[in-house]
Structure formats: C-alpha cells, structure tokens
Design brief:
This protein has 251 residues and is α+β, with helices and mostly antiparallel strands. Helix content is 46%, strand content 27%. The strands form 2 sheets. The chain has a 5-stranded mixed sheet. Strands 6-7-8-9-10 form a 5-stranded mixed sheet. Helix 1 crosses helix 10 and helix 4 packs antiparallel against helix 7. The longest helix has 14 residues.
C-alpha cells in the first residue's frame, strides 16, 4: 500500500493544475514542489525527463519499510502497479494519455532514507498500453494486490511492544492484526472507545493518496477492522468500521 500509492501520487502531482500541458512543463512544476511527502513513509524527491524517459525518484523511510523485501518482490510490485493502471480515471488518465502519446518510458526509483539502498521499476509504453487497454481489474483483485504488497512489509514494528503482524481478509472484513505487550493491551482495552475515535480521526487526516488505497476496501464490499492480541495472555480485542462508515471517513 505504501509503496504503490506514491507511484499513483506521482501521476496526480504531475497533472495538478496542468493536465493538458506538455510533459516537460508538468515535470518542471512538480520539481518546484519537491521534496514532497505523499504518504507517511514516502516522499517524492524529484523527477526528470530526457525526451524518452521520465524518472521519478522516491525516498522510503526504511526505519519501518523493508527495502530488501521490496527489492525481492519487484516483479510482484510491477504486476500490481500495472493492474492499478487498467482502468485509470481523471488526472491519472490524463497523465497516461500524455505518456502514451509521447511514447515515454516511466522509471520509478526508490531509495532508502537510512540505508541508501536503491531499486527501480520500469514501465515501457508497450506495457502501459497493454494494461491501459486491458480489462478493468475487479475491486476484489485490486484489494488482494494491495494486501500482498502490504504483507511484504510485515511484521512491522510500530513501537516497542507494538507490532503489526499482517493485514488480511476475514469474511466481510479486512483486518489490521497487531501483537502488543500486556501493558499496551491493558491500556487499549480500558480505552477502546477512545482508541476507535482516535483511529477514525487519523483515517480522516491521512493523505488523499493513502485514502485512495484504503477505498479499495469498501469498494470490495468489506469493512475495516483492527484486532489487538496480547501473546502473553492470549487476550484479544477488536473494533471495526463498516464499509459505509469507512467510505464516509475516506470522502
């Protein structure tokens, strides 16, 4: 989720306020805004265009994101990325129209904030055209793709005694699953209504790009849940937002 959303964000940022302008002008306007944070863990640093290829450079916060896991799953990421392009809308569609009309290759370069490690994904005009002209990917497939890329990053240590172990579908709900220490569990259990309210507020204030990713959940007719388990005691507590509540939160 956090890795694909910035790629879509690149298209959105390029086209903001200048959807019909030429590619070089869009690149110049984007660079004037960079660096710019597009998700919690990712910033777009700069882009360039040499007449044949657009290169977009992103900085990943590898204190939480796992560069090695992402590098090992580049082909899966590319597949997910192309699937996301099968039914583009609005400014994203405008961007791809320009890219295809100019027969431009797009390369996404990712660099770790601390490690300096790099990897890249390259989308050729032919690959983009095939995805663009193909059958639209279903909401269920897009959700499955999102879960795959999220789970490449797990387990993710949020804080001491607070680990996100997975994100998965269970019946009519998609759950964030956490393992937490006994003191943290006790605090959450004693204040579960406040925790839910704070979570709702956080969801309302995430970036538009992150919201676009999470909209895949109600689009696939699923609720969003948060489950906290204490391995020391075996206790578990959870709450959820219904699909209609989530759609309202992410408006």
């Amino acid at each position: 989720m956090a890795i694909i959303a910035p790629v879509l964000a690149f298209a959105l940022f390029l086209l903001t306020g200048c959807a019909k302008n030429k590619l070089q002008r869009a690149i110049d306007e984007l660079n004037a805004k960079c660096p710019q944070r597009v998700t919690t863990f990712v910033r777009i640093m700069e882009s360039s265009y040499d007449g044949e290829k657009v290169i977009a450079r992103f900085e990943l916060d590898d204190r939480l994101m796992k560069m090695d896991a992402l590098k090992e799953n580049k082909e899966m990421m590319k597949k997910i990325l192309l699937a996301s392009y099968s039914n583009p809308q609005g400014d994203v569609k405008d961007f791809f129209d320009i890219v295809l009309s100019t027969n431009t290759t797009v390369e996404y370069v990712y660099e770790g904030l601390l490690s300096g490690e790099r990897f890249s994904l390259t989308i050729t005009p032919e690959e983009l055209r095939q995805a663009y002209d193909g059958n639209a990917t279903s909401p269920d497939e897009l959700l499955d793709f999102m879960l795959q890329i999220v789970n490449v990053q797990t387990p993710m240590v949020i804080a001491d005694g607070f680990v996100m172990t997975t994100m998965r579908k269970e019946g009519d709900c998609v759950y964030y699953i956490y393992e937490i220490s006994e003191p943290i569990y006790a605090s959450i259990a004693a204040n579960i209504d406040n925790v839910k309210a704070d979570t709702r507020m956080n969801l309302e204030n995430i970036s538009e790009i992150e919201k676009a990713d999470l909209r895949k959940i109600p689009a696939a007719d699923k609720d969003l849940g948060y489950r906290y388990t204490c391995p020391e005691t075996g206790d578990s507590i959870e709450f959820r937002f219904t699909k209609s509540q989530l759609a309202d939160i992410l408006r």
